[in-house]
Amino acid sequence: MSFWKRTVREWDLAGKTVLLRADYNVPLDNGKITDDYRIQKSLPTIQFLLEQNCKVVICSHLGRPNGKPNPEFSLAPVAERLGELLKKDVAFALDCVGPIAEGAVGQLQNGQVLLLENLRFHPEEESNDDEFGKSLAKLAEVFVQDGFGVVHRAHASTSAVARHIPGIAGLLLEKEVDTITNVMDNPERPLVAIIGGSKISDKIEILNRFIDIADFVAVGGAMANTFLLAEGIDIGKSLAEPSEVSLAKDIIEKARKKSKEQRFVFYLPQDGVVAKSLDKNAHTRIVDWDAHVIATIENYPKNPDRKTGQVEDDELILDIGPFSGAFIAGGMQMANTVIWNGTMGVTETPSVHGPIGPFAHGTDIIVDAMLGEYGHKPFTVVGGGDTAGYVEQRKLVGSFNHVSTGGGASMELMSGKQLPGVEALWNKE
Ligand code: ADP
Ligand code: 3PG
Ligand code: MG
Fold first, then answer.
1. Of 84, 102, 247, 343, which residue is least crowded by CB atoms under 10 Å?
2. What is the per-residue pLDDT for 115?
3. At which of 176, 200, 226 does a domain end?
4. What pLDDT is stored for residue 298 in this prediction?
5. Ligand 2 midpoint to CA 60 (Å)
6. Does residue 67 have its Cβ closer than 6 Å to ligand 2?
């Protein structure tokens, strides 16, 4: 089922000048792009527009330059990479509105591509200023929104611009919204949701939604630490949000209630990899603090006689442990759909040997299970942000059914929120 009534496919674009909003907010290191996944994912729409002989004018933001020009946040490196990927010259304009942008568009021929400088060099972009939206609209006849990663923002290039010229969805936006909406509204069950990452406060809504709709919810990452605190487990100096403990208790209570009413499992890690620092050479140990499962399965091994380990005061939990990884991977053997958002540990710490860092093994087990390494391969959807970054870094992005280009946007969509950049489009009959 498609959410969309109006995409680039349902609009006469032949020979038109099109303003394409992309999300080229890519990670840079000293002016070099370290991950071009978002650029790659923008290619189908650009190619589609070029086949229609359009003049393709692309706008985007990069980083958070706070409304002022700043060479550190220039999109020039993106123009270069885009040209390489398209195997075609990409012109670059030093401003996204006004005489410089208008002059560059004036020079453009049909079948050519122009990238405009960072929208956020103007404060009016983030304030969703109507005049600024109008100046953007002046550059083209049609607006195509394809920057899925930014449609949760109501900015001039996601909202105001579409008040002045027709706004329609590009192919990436269409695919992202359709895939995520379908998997949330109509998943092939059992549905497993794996939620990790750094903060529970960022992911309350998505967690609540998954407890509502999923058959198995597993929590990992630093987020799990706040739940462990709520369960009275020592977490040493691990990253956690003590102010959210009561919220964690509410979520556990909600999960417990659901598990009494139907077949449902809410799983918190039962062991972890701990160390005294994040250093790649830090001494690590595995602590098994007991099984904490809120499940329908009677007598799940929460064995009071079992000797449990303890995280010391000066230690940090930096990854889920092997039992937890195995339990979650086991759950996935029964799943037909898996949605994953947030790493299980500190995947950034580089490895000393081989490709997997010392605190990335838990995440790696999840990845292996999602990709069918243990026999069964479910339909897999990965949220954007750091999770997608990890998958990209491991060069595994093509192996999942869908790896979102949007971090905040995919979370908001999964939470069931309306996205301003989608609402602004002309998507009615
Ligand atoms: P996403 O961007 O995919 O939504 P998050 O930003 O929520 O993911 O989470 C990723 C971050 O969580 C990573 O930077 C990772 O280092 C951090 N993280 C995961 N587990 C832990 C942990 N146990 N302690 C500290 N940080 C953690
Ligand atoms: C992202 O990377 O999540 C998007 O490009 C949005 O960026 P923002 O969080 O700075 O608005
Ligand atoms: Mg993140």
1. 84
2. 98
3. 176
4. 42
5. 11
6. no
407 is catalytic: no
Q: Say what the pLDDT of residue 203 is.
A: 93
Burial class for 103, CB neighbours closer than 10 Å (0-12, 13-18, 19+): exposed
Distance CA(291)–CA(285), nearest Å, equals 18
72 class by beta-carbon count within 10 Å (0-12 exposed, 13-18 middle, 19+ buried): exposed
Which residue among 126, 150, 387, 392 has the greatest number of ligand 2 atoms within 8 angstroms of its CB, and so is best to mutate? 150
Q: Please give the DSSP secondary-structure letter assigned to residue 7.
A: B
CATH code of the domain covering residue 296:
3.40.50.1260
* Global pTM exceeds 0.85: yes
Q: What is residue 5's predicted lDDT score, i.e. its pLDDT? A: 86
Residues in the chain predicted with pLDDT less than 50, given as ranges, are 295-300, 305-307
* Same-domain check for residues 343 and 249: yes
Same domain? For 168 and 202 the reply is no
Q: What is the pLDDT of residue 428?
A: 72
Residue the block writes with tokens 């903060």: 199
Q: Which candidate, 151, 173, 182, places its Cα nearest to that of 419?
A: 151
List all residues whose CB is within 6 A of at least one atom of ligand 1.
196-198, 202, 221-222, 239, 317-318, 341-343, 345-346, 348, 383, 385-387, 407
Which of ligand 2's atoms lies nearest the C-alpha of 407? 3
Give pLDDT, residue 289: 84
Question: Which pLDDT tens digit goes with each residue over 235-250?
Answer: 999 999 999 999 999 9
Q: Is 38 a catalytic residue?
A: yes
